[in-house]
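FAQ: What does a ligand-bound record look like?

Like this one, built around alpha-D-glucopyranose:
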Amino acid sequence: MAPEGDYHFGSADDVIPDTLPPADRLAWEQALAILNRLYDGLSEAERSAMQRAIGQRISAARASRRPELKKLDETHAGNSQWFRKAGRPAYCTYVDRFAGNLRGCIDHIPYLQSLGVGLFHPLPLLKCRVGDSDGGFAVSDYRDVEQALGTFGDLVTLADELRKADIALVLDVVCNHTAREHAWARGFVAGDPQYKDFYIRLDSEADVISWSANLHQVFPETAPGNFIYDEDARGWIWTTFYPFQWDLNYANPNVFIEMLDILFYLANAGANGFRLDSATYLWKVKGTACRNLPETHDILRAMKLLVSLVAPSVFFLAEAIEDIAEVIPFFGASAEERECDLAYNNTPMTALWASLAEGRSQIFDAAIQGASQRPEHANWLNYARCHDDIIWPALSSLASPQRQSGWSQFFNGVGGSFADGMAFQAPPGLAPSTCGMAASLCGVGRGPEGLERLKSVYSVIFALDGIPMIYMGDEIALPNDRRFLDQPDRAKEIRWLNRPEMDWNRSATSEEARAMLAHVGMLSAILKTHPEIDASGPSRPRASSESLISFERQGDTVRFLCIANLSSKSQSAPIPAGMTNLFTNESARGSAELAPWQAVWYLGR
Ligand code: GLC
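The answer part, i.e. the structure of the complex:
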């Protein structure tokens, strides 16, 4: 929506960038060029007020950055991928599910170390609205921690302790929306001029209908539509997700400035990276789907440039669950035009499950072919599962809706499949997405082959180029948690199926848990011992039998192969003689025999 002018930027007496070193000055000028283009409706006076306001925030944030964080910035200067270390996976979890609270997370750092973790992503932990908060994604104060999880001081301590353990901390920044209870929203509703146009309000149902014509619905069953009528706000408020999650209006430069300042604040608290939640939705233009618009990329690029002036080592992780062609632009066109340093590798993740359902590698091959187009300056975060659902329509450019429905049904256990998932929601005519822990989707607990499948899924994820991520509990084959079905406020939110509590005793009591833990440990250890794998190129499919996943990565001096059997029959795969099986250390003699569902890694020249 176009800005209407008359914004209140606050006063600023100095524009600190005059004192910046040349490289920073360039970043500042590039950022301003982007913002001036984006906010071209501003008057000259408003534009200089905007620049002053940003300059003032930068100045204050630079002044308050602690020496140990400045040292980190210096250490990693010129290495925008410093957080990627061979054999050091990421670990993602809800704080309360993993360890009760932030102090508990600190106590469990040795556990993270035992897994070799190099990057820790606790899901949203900032203060959120009371009651349903969409798992913490409805933030009511970005400068405070949710009371049940601890204090802001605990968060700073966690960041400090992780840094000592050489583990990078990634925090969620829910940048597309706030809770309806956030002070900005309350000010907006009350007509406070400071929060004028912070959100998007439509005056009539006719407007709602015309804007909605091109919009997609994220939660068509639990939160139909994209707008909610709010009595107090006297209009229709844009809510892409739940009615209590109000989309911010980035066409108002003050929203950009406030969110930028929050990034500064959290970076100075010790966050090393930000997961930019729902990053695809930031800018809205009537007549479009309001996803992945060029202006959204401008916002992210400007944020990246400006954050680099305060906390140059801080990296961005894009949460863009879209077709691969829409995800790659989140990296920025070149190293000079960098936006996000990491992005979820959603296409291969979804396709891996689809291939498992079909017993055919075709869709996975197509997915990694697409993912291989990522620019060299950025990397994928590879994952099998996360706290969300598996969204089949994200593969719409690769597979028909009928085929997607088949996968959805398969993971629902239809037709006697091994999987124990549950369907979530989807817009009419599209395949319902799937929820469930990786172990349950692989059929762990339903016969010995389940564990082999789960091991293979993780062998594939760890073999892809980028950073592998462990979703809490997968390392001990933790199954679904169905208790949410008994909780009235959660029963319809099927994603709680894959948000179990950590079972710290499971390894002591379950053979499968021990075997999986050992397997994940082995994968990390191999990657650590052979950093040349991490340094090798993108994953590319190898022509092979249709029921084998088979891909390779080529380095300057090495060739790395990953092969996974997608069937319940043993299969033979051609392997160049002399390559070494990294799981057994045996030398290949031209082929390998893979047991049902087994995966193997080979390294050679
Ligand atoms: C992201 C989160 C998801 C949340 C949504 C709205 O997609 O991963 O859990 O519901 O954003 O904030």
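Follow-up question: can I read anything off the structure? Yes, for example: The first strand starts at residue 90 and ends at 93.
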